[in-house]
Amino acid sequence: MTDNVQNDELTQVLPPVKGPVRRDRKQRAQARTEARPEVVADAPVKAPRLGGFSAPWLKRPSAADAGVYASFSPPVREIAPLATLEGRNVSAWFGERQVLDRVNLTMPAGIITSLIGPSGCGKSTFLRILNRMHELVPSASLAGEVLLDGEDIYDPERKLVDARKSIGMVFQKPNPFPAMSIYDNVIAGLTLTGKRASNDEKDFLVESCLTKAGLWKEVRDRLRAPGSGLSGGQQQRLCIARSLAVTPRILLMDEPCSALDPTSTRVIEETMLELAHEVTIVIVTHNMQQAQRVSQNCAFFLAAQGTPGGIVEHGPTDAMFGNPIDSRTADYVNGRFG
Q1: How many helices (H) does the chain have, and how many strands (E)?
Q2: Which pTM was predicted?
Q3: In terms of Cα–Cα distance, which of 73, 77, 75 is closest to 244?
Q4: Angle value at C-alpha 84, between 82 and 88, nearest 5 degrees
Q5: What is the average per-residue pLDDT within 91-103?
Q6: Distance CA 37, CA 246 (A)
Q7: Which candidate, 217, 211, 212, places its Cα nearest to that of 279?
Q8: Where is average pLDDT lowest: 65-79, 163-177, 324-338?
């Protein structure tokens, strides 16, 4: 009888087993769902990590819980402070021929400065001097100083790569690297300047720079396609994105829209205006309307027959076009010559 009592007690504790216990898919899915933690939007939570990412069923944390999710944030790029560029008594020669004579010009921080004037007056030469490209010509020489926030970029102790990294350049003709993809074109500057970045940082950099250049939405689905396969306007914006990737403090643009259609020109101009809050821009242009649309500061270059070029007048763009001091400036901006 004792055995029967013990068996009855065991029967109450352990249910009878007729075979292996199994649950169908619906039951297993329901069990997993019930096991998930319920998260209130404003309640502090710790995100479980799944291969470096938060569990997908958790809701987005509130601002108060941002610290918990700090490791989930994309890499933050450092934005250099806005810089002022100044040319002091800049003169330039090609061999024995002098092309610029004692040019003095301050390009204020966070301002778009346009350089206008007829062909052959030294605008592009002055622009190339601003990031030490003039010295690449074998017969070229120069005198004077170019100061980036008070420091001469031609100081013998200053490395050339440092000057180029701080002062980017966008040329008249788009020049993406033809053998590189759109993605690799953007990050090419990292290799040239010796910067290291993880794959995640590169991805973020590519998206950020292409967005700033107004190109991301157009190419985000074909980043591995050749950069040379883009249209002319897209290639120019790709070159702008490539320049931005090394976080320059100054961006020089040598007639960036001269070969573009009106629609592409408008996009480039909008890009310049959006970038002006984080980089100082200097642009050479023959388009007087463009100078009025995009620049806040303007300098008029002129070279008389047989004499080197120089600045006739400079100042706020509105004043230069609306009430110029020199009659030659008035004649040029009103289309009487050039």
Answers
A1: 12, 12
A2: 0.74
A3: 77
A4: 165
A5: 94
A6: 43
A7: 212
A8: 65-79
